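Proteins fold reproducibly. Look at a concrete instance:
___
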Amino acid sequence: MPIEADLFGPEQWSPAMFWNELASGRHYRVALDDDGSLLGYAGLAVDPDGESWVQNIAVRRDAQRRGIGRALLEDLLAETARRGVGSVLLEVAVDNAPAQRLYAGYGFEPIGVRRGYYQPSNTDALVMRRDAEPGADGTDHG
């Protein structure tokens, strides 16, 4: 929760939201430092219809720019491939250019905007989508 509060302020997820994610069987991964302290986390929701959503990716400020967010994203994408998921979607704040560049580097493309998605700041969210490459996970999603 300290990472969530620091990074997202009034738009942070509540403990109940995280517990609900875990109780719903979402795929979550954490990154730990050598001393066992939490560096970051990422979550993925997989829809039975063959879509998945990146729920969140967060890296502690003092651990950013060390490849941790990239490693967490790669883990989520590997999980989608393992499950044979055809497409991965996410929302990212329109003013979060570093995250958008990270996602674009992994083949995510903008497909829409959710106006006023983040509350209480009323910040828009850019919706991005990445389709699995045919054969990348042993199946053809085309």
Notes: Confidence is low (pLDDT under 50) at residues 134-142. Strands lie at 27-32, 38-46, 51-59, 87-93, 109-118, 123-131.
